[in-house]
Specification:
Low-confidence stretches of chain B: 254-258, 316-322
Largest sheet of chain A: 11 strands, antiparallel
Shape of chain A: globular
Number of helices of chain B: 10
Radius of gyration of chain B: 34 Å
Largest interface: A-B, 76 and 72 residues
Strand order of the largest sheet of chain B: 4-3-2-1-7-6-5
Helix content of chain A: 55-70%
Distance between the termini of chain A: 29 Å
Number of strands of chain B: 11
Structural class of chain A: alpha+beta
Structural class of chain B: alpha+beta
Largest sheet of chain B: 7 strands, antiparallel
Number of helices of chain A: 12
Number of strands of chain A: 11
Oligomer: heterodimer
Low-confidence stretches of chain A: 1-19, 388-393
């Protein structure tokens, strides 16, 4: 019997029915969306949002998200997006105001922007919790909602506190440099950084997963911290493999553009060719590395998670993901954004088809949990979509 | 009585029950496929989801339970008065004509917003901005540049004082001239150049002071920068480009999720589109001011030519794209035109005088 206790001390109801099965079933997620349907929904909603000066965008968000959620099915049942437009609109207006103040502050007085950034950084963990709560609260499957614990302590620990640890390699570097060994200092700092970063990322995932709950059960996370070191060591290799040829290409392009005349290069107002050249040569490298880390981290996230009797298996692969991202980016770029719905549908399909829920049950053994599902404001989730906080789910 | 196939979830577990639902006057009833169980709910307590192409309807009942009905299976007359706005949106979303119209609407409204709406709004804000803000901005940007990009001038003091007196003579001659001051700097990084900072400071580099052939050409450059000052171009540009960033941020954060790279290019193009208009504005101001003070606008052409000589790398095709300044050729053509007008007017003035 599974009476699980959680950090918040809430006891979940005991299950009265445990399906006695000895065969393991694999439930694959499926995505049924069509690019043509989604394109029409998307373009109509974008147009309506623009002509209403953004007011309708809240309704647009709900409709497009519902399309994506409801077309993702598990065990034949769709997911559901339950958020209401009005709270989203309120959150969005507040976010625009904050963002506008931030941008203007930067143009008028840089210290003001620094202060604003500091304030945002202090509230970031809070924002992350609120945003996760909102997402979980308004996502449901078979009539049960997801839930995210209000664990601010954990958020401050893993999304702010640990970054102070990052100062240690930096201080080491300063000390050794002061002692006259800048080379050793750089090595030490680098070692410290590479030693800490995967550890932080691993614990962030653990915190994220273990605070999620569904159907009377808490997600559990059996993480092996070594896995994260593996991912980031390989990512460093991938980065090297991408950046060396791209840098060579970039310098060739740079020499060609400035025609060897370095005097002509004006850092304040570089020529558009130079900017385009920089983007064109460095973007593939960035995409190549980012995709690798993202793919492997997503796999780790699901493969180490567990919900009651069920495990997950995520089998995203690097090259298919990279070709998806690359073709999507090119298509969106060359269609001035019109290919965006198609790009999203392809990505959703690939991701769904590479995620499986494995367990002995038939997925009907989840029950409503004892949490109070109150309404949650949408401001945090709007902020994080604007700031692009990498929450990693 | 139409039977509608549905799936029932009681809201307490993830168990799915296949049912058939039907409407019985003011009551919604549904019965399990094996006929063993039957449920009902008052019609007014049922909360249907809005229609979206291709996805099932959810009829929410009390206590978290819901019935899920396939997209095409819900009878049209069941909930005719719900979600009126979204009903209209759905009507549009199902039509390719509406999608095509949507593309046109998006293009037109984006164009309208960036060409007219945003500049208009930014300029409204700029006129209500206290002058102290503009001064603070100028002071701060100058402080950021001094000692890095801008070094103390190496012009001989008598050359400086000569140019200053020419500057003041010109500025005092302009009716309603903005509150300005002229500063010389040595700036290797930007070469022969002059620019206006918010709040009235005009920065003039040593290289440019050496490159201008005569006082008239010097005044032509000054007149252009005065145009920027008189029309508060720097503040307006800052507000406009902040507006672009804010609007783009909202667009990207919401309807798209393109990377910053893809977003950077259009933002850059829009910004330089605005500043190009400001440059044309400043040119117009300069040509008028020169003519007003009896200086042949040909001086502007001489200044342009001196700038071109000082910046050989900017010649040719490169300037054509996304340049913040209008093409030099166009500017020279306009200045020559102004000069021709000036000479014609002067010639007639002269003939009047001789009579």
């Amino acid at each position: 019997m599974h009476d699980e206790t959680m950090a918040s001390g809430v006891y979940l109801p005991e299950l009265d029915v445990i399906p006695a099965r000895d065969t393991t079933e694999v439930h694959r997620l499926r995505f049924h969306g069509h690019a043509s349907d989604y394109f029409r929904i998307w373009i109509v909603n974008v147009a309506l949002s623009l002509v209403t000066l953004g007011i309708y965008s809240a309704w647009a968000t709900v409709r497009t998200r519902r399309y994506m959620y409801a077309n993702t099915t598990l065990g034949g049942s769709p997911f559901d997006y339950l958020a209401r437009p009005l709270p989203i609109l309120k959150g969005r207006l507040l976010t625009v105001a904050i963002f506008a103040i931030y941008v203007l502050a930067g143009r008028i007085a840089v210290p003001l922007q620094g202060l604003a950034a500091l304030v945002v950084a202090t509230f970031m963990p809070c924002l992350i919790v609120k945003s996760m709560m909102f997402r979980a609260r308004y996502s449901s499957w078979r009539g049960l909602r997801f839930f995210f614990s209000e664990d601010y302590m954990g958020a401050y620990k893993w999304y702010l506190g640990v970054y102070f640890l990052m100062a240690i390699p930096f201080i080491l570097y300063l000390l050794t440099t002061a002692a006259g060994h800048p080379g050793i200092g750089i090595l030490l700092a680098f070692a410290g950084f590479t030693g800490l970063y995967p550890w932080i990322k691993g614990h962030q995932q653990e915190w994220m997963v273990e605070n999620h709950h569904f159907g009377g059960k808490s997600f559990r996370f059996d993480s092996e911290i070594g896995n994260y070191y593996g991912v980031y060591i390989k990512a460093a290799g991938v980065a090297l493999a991408w950046f060396v040829p791209c840098l060579l290409l970039f310098s060739a392009v740079a020499v060609y553009i400035t025609k060897g005349n370095t005097q002509a290069f004006n850092p304040k107002m570089p020529s558009p060719y130079f900017l385009l050249g920089t983007y064109a040569t460095m973007a593939p490298a960035y995409l190549g590395v980012w995709t690798f880390a993202h793919t492997r981290m997503t796999n780790l996230l699901y493969n180490q998670a567990q919900l009651g009797l069920y495990r997950f298996r995520s089998t995203l692969e690097y090259w298919p993901m990279l070709s998806l991202y690359l073709t999507n980016a090119l298509a969106v770029l060359f269609s001035i954004g019109l290919a965006l719905p198609w790009a999203r549908i392809r990505m959703a399909r690939y991701r769904a088809e590479h995620l499986e829920v494995i367990g002995e049950g038939d997925l009907s053994d989840f029950v409503r949990d004892a949490f109070a599902h109150g309404e949650i404001g949408a401001t945090a989730t709007e902020m994080d979509s604007l700031l692009g906080i990498d929450i990693g789910l | 009585m139409a039977m509608v196939p549905a799936t029932y979830f009681d809201g307490r577990s993830t168990h799915a029950t296949r049912v058939n639902a039907w409407r019985d006057e003011d009551v919604l009833r549904w019965r399990s496929a094996d006929d063993l169980q039957e449920w009902s709910a008052p019609w007014t307590a049922v909360e249907p989801s809005a229609r979206v192409t291709g996805i099932p309807f959810t009829l929410r009942l009390r206590d978290g339970a819901h019935l899920q009905i396939d997209h095409d299976a819900l009878p049209a007359d069941w909930f005719p008065r719900h979600h009126l706005i979204e009903r209209m949106a759905d009507w549009l979303e199902r039509r390719w004509m509406a999608a095509l119209a949507g593309i046109v609407v998006v293009v037109v409204s984006l164009f309208g917003m960036f060409e007219y709406g945003l500049p208009w709004a930014a300029d409204r804000i700029a006129t209500h901005m206290p002058a102290s803000v503009e001064h603070a901005m100028g002071k701060q940007s100058l402080a950021a540049l001094e000692g890095r990009m801008l070094m103390p001038t190496s012009l001989p003091p008598d050359r400086q004082s000569h140019l200053q007196s020419v500057f003041w003579h010109f500025v005092n001659g302009i009716h309603g001239a903005p509150d300005v001051r002229l500063r010389f700097y040595q700036a290797k990084a930007i070469g022969a150049n002059a620019f206006a900072l918010p709040g009235g400071t005009i920065v003039f580099t040593d290289d440019l002071a050496k490159a201008v052939p005569d006082d008239a050409a010097f005044i032509a450059v000054i007149a252009h920068e005065l145009g920027h000052q008189a029309h508060h171009h720097m503040l307006r540009q800052v507000l406009r480009s902040s507006g672009v960033l804010i609007v783009a941020g909202m667009l990207m954060g919401d309807v798209t999720s393109m990377g910053g790279v893809a977003a950077g290019i259009p933002m850059f193009l829009i910004d330089s589109h605005y500043s190009r208009h400001f440059e044309e504005d400043a040119d117009r101001f300069a040509l008028d001011a020169l003519a007003q003070q009896n200086i042949d606008p040909m001086a502007f052409v001489h200044a342009m030519e001196a700038l071109e000589r000082a910046h050989p790398e900017l010649q040719g095709e490169e300037l054509r794209y996304a340049s913040s300044h209008p093409l030099t050729g166009e500017r020279i053509a306009r200045a020559t035109e102004a000069s021709t007008r000036f000479r014609a007017a002067h010639a007639s003035d002269g003939s009047h005088a001789s009579h």
